[in-house]
Amino acid sequence: MLKxxxxxxxRSMQIIAVRKEHVRRIGLLLLIxxxxxxxxxxxxxxxxxxxxxxxxxxxxQADREYFQLEGNKFLILGGSMHYFRIPxxxxxxxxxxxxxxGLNTLVxxxxxxxxxxQRGIFNFKDNLDFEAYLRLANDLDLWVILRPGPYICSEWxxxxxxxWLLRDKNMKLRTTYVGFTDAxxxxxxxxxxxxxxxxxxKGGPIIAVQVENEYGGYDKDPKYMKFVYExxxxxxxxxxxxxxxxxxxxxKGSITGALPTINFQKLDSGLTLMKNLEPGKPKMVxxxxxxxxxxxxxxxxxYREGMLNTIAALLNxxxxxxxxxxxxxxxxxxxxxxxxxxxxxxxxxxxxxxAPLSESGDYxxxxxxxxxxxxxxxxxxxxxxPAQMYKARYTTIHVKEYVPLWKALNQLEKPIQSERxxxxxxxxxxxxxxxxxxxxxxxTVINSGGLLHSGQNxxxxxxxxxxxxxxxxxDYNNIELAISTAVGKRNLSLLVENRGRVNYGDKLxxxxxxxxxxxxxxxxxxxxxxxYPLEMKTNFIESFSAIQLNAVxxxxxxxxxxxxILYVDSLPYDTFxxxxxxxxxxxxxxxxxxxxxxxxxxxxxxxxxxxWLQHGSNEIVVFEESKAGRTIExxxxxxxxxxxxx
Length: 646
Description:
Elements: H1 2-42, H2 49-53, E1 60-61, E2 67-69, E3 72-74, E4 77-81, H3 91-101, E5 105-109, H4 112-115, H5 130-139, E6 143-147, H6 178-195, E7 206-210, H7 224-233, E8 240-245, E9 258-264, H8 267-274, E10 284-289, E11 300-302, H9 307-316, E12 320-327, E13 338-340, E14 344-346, H10 365-378, E15 397-398, E16 401-404, H11 405-408, E17 416-418, E18 439-446, E19 450-453, E20 458-459, E21 461-466, E22 469-474, E23 480-483, E24 490-497, E25 514-515, E26 520-521, E27 524-525, E28 529-534, H12 538-542, E29 550-551, E30 560-568, E31 575-578, E32 584-589, E33 592-598, E34 605-608, E35 616-624, E36 631-635, E37 643-645
Parallel strand pairs: 4-5, 4-12, 5-6, 6-7, 7-8, 8-9, 9-10, 10-12, 11-37
Antiparallel strand pairs: 1-2, 2-3, 13-14, 15-36, 16-29, 16-30, 17-28, 18-24, 18-28, 19-23, 19-26, 20-25, 21-22, 21-24, 26-27, 30-35, 31-34, 31-36, 32-33, 32-35
């Protein structure tokens, strides 16, 4: 009886704890709502009251050495923050933290590849509801500079351009090639009408719109910038136009009718660039790089030395500044970009960027220092900092069930038969838009061993299997692989990963993925392929809960999908997943793609935002390519790897 009473008492205490937690979280939500109201009431006057209260006739003007907004001298204190890299539930939190830093302008890109994932099929819902994002910015008295592209760079796959453009073998991206301009026109026909009501002169927050992005460093068509400019004007954009460039193309990226702005990090290079700007016009740093991005196999880049002195010097010169990034967020899914200036390197999942606000929305030392600087320069007390989100360290999962890739292929639609390999983008799927992201499996039959040669046609990394057994990898550096000799026919499989398309530079047109040409065995091209597109969309990952999973043996068949349950006994909190002992792959939480992991780092954890979790059971699926661990850990802080100063 005493034991039963003790059990009942323990259970009661658990129920009370959960109820307290619910009350605490509800209270936190109410505080956020109250904070929004207070921002509207208390700080409304900070954002140029005359422009908010009276008719808006002229908008942001750039005909003097300083900006004017309805006749008032105006300095842009901006911060870049992209709605598509932040869970929608956190938009308000991040914007209020932006206000608390002293910023008055939100700067965001529009990613074409997310909004038109298949040609003619558009998505502006849920986390891609940029209209809701703009409304929220307006409610919080933040001005907006919109950067709609069509190209955005941003360390984002193909610089935000949709991969289906590359189905055209003659495609010339970012030019007036008709195949490209027709696609841009179709996209702008959908996008720009949604933007129009949010312009300043229509009562909205948008005070400026950027024409394309850093075109001077590309500069492949002298008519192109005029095309983009007129495409925006003809659809009703009437606010101040801007362009931006860095040292690679400031002299070539401007266009009549748009104010040139500059991008840089170090003060000396910035001052040199400013000398080339038009005299008698406002000076603006569209991208003051407050940190830097990371790529696999390197270090976590940080930027500290000289940052505050640079910002202070710019303020004292009356130069408008946009912090790129104020808050980086995450390259969820397969959306990270890559660089190729002679060597291909892919970016990591995290877009923390060493920004003032961390990937998970936490304040950094950099945030505190910039806030103090802005407060002194503005000569006023800044809005109170919103509370930080609690981070949880959940119980470690011991993985017990899995399904090998070869069995999971049954969950896919009918494979594609082809005499020769077909690159991802030209596969006949997705309403004629091809495969955009993920992996593609190419199977064929061989009758001999010998030397397998990629012909440099693997994009970007292929794990090679003979009768289901891994025999090695092909990539940019490893283009040959010995295949052992055996009697009879054998299955040869190449699991090819698209690690991310280049987002900057002159190689954009050459970003087709998968196998883009012949693969040779003993100098003879392989033929008769069965091709499986492994896009790993949510419905595919969720299908594992309905099939018979296998117990994980001591030596599991790889690649494979490993299945586990994270039980959350309260309202969820942010957390970070760590895959110690695993090698390389992708993690999914409740069917949503967190992104890639790779033991070579620098990134060692993946961010799980609380809105992606639920009270109770949460399905964790890990796709591991070559060496599986046995546990999945959940930490209350990130590990982005050893630091390297920029």
